[in-house]
Amino acid sequence: MSALTTPLGDLAGVGRPAVRALAAHGLHTVGDLAGRDWPELAQLHGVGPAAGRRLQAALAEHGATMQDPPAPQARRAVITPGATGTGASDLKTHATTADPAEHVAGLEPRRRRDGEALLEIFGAATGASATMWGPSMIGYGEVHYRYATGREGDTFQLGFSPRKAELALYGLQGFPHSEELLERLGRHRRGAGCLWVRSLEGIDLEVLRELIAHAWTHGPDGAGP
């Protein structure tokens, strides 16, 4: 499923006022913004420069653009391998000592099967141990991020969350061959920071293994370019 069909409300950095204002003008997905005049959209209440840059960046990832788009911010987010212990005081998601296998074992049968499979797949593809982050996310590796705004914190490099409605797969987009692999993956939808999959039965697990290994190699903790 193309990221151009991603709902605007799923994009991190685009606030609800902006989403509501754009929806009132018939703009609901990233692709709806292609070819639209940015100076005109910037006049809408709640649609500021930061939202405009995020929207333009989402379009640019797929070769699309708004007309007369906002200039990119000079600063950018920086992600480095390893945790530093430094982060915003209001961060709620941290690594815990809970056992990922025990967490998965306590899920309802369908998600337990998916969770067990993902533990095996992520573990084999990364060679790293699984860690619980917050109550429901399972991560591999540690990275430190610092946004252009100055906000920073520690998180996992790759991971997943076996949620009841859909499986969330984190950190697998934006690498040299990610798009090619995603086209072969099977039924999924894309959010700003994760992939959503209803069931592992709907995707190619061998491609998923390739996707995870590729992201791990080319991410902050790997040796890839």
Would you kindly provide a written description of the structure presented here, covering whatever features stand out?
Strands 1, 2, 3, 4, 5, 6 and 7 form a seven-stranded antiparallel sheet that branches. This protein has seven helices and seven strands. It has two domains: 3-60, DNA polymerase, domain 1, CATH 1.10.150; 78-218, Aspartate Aminotransferase, domain 1. The longest helix is centred in the middle third of the chain and has 18 residues, at 109-126. α5 (109-126) crosses α7 and α6 runs antiparallel to α7. β4 (152-162) and β5 (167-170) form a beta hairpin. The chain is globular and about 50 Å long. With 225 residues, it is an alpha+beta fold. It holds the Pfam family HHH_5. Residues 111-215 form the YdhG-like domain. This is YdhG-like domain-containing protein. Residues 81-101 are annotated as: Disordered.
- Structural class, please? alpha+beta
Evaluate the radius of gyration.
Answer: 18 Å
Average of the residue pLDDT scores: 87
For the record, give the distance between the C-alpha atoms at the N and C termini, rounded to a whole number.
27 Å
Low-confidence stretches: 221-225
Number of E-state strands: 7
Basic shape? globular
Helix % is 25-40%
Task: Assign the CATH topology of the largest domain.
Answer: Aspartate Aminotransferase, domain 1
- H and E string: HHHEHHEEEEHEEH
Question: In the CATH hierarchy, what is the class of the largest domain?
Answer: Alpha Beta
Number of domains: 2
What is the tally of helical segments? 7
CATH architecture group name of the largest domain: Alpha-Beta Complex
Largest sheet: 7 strands, antiparallel
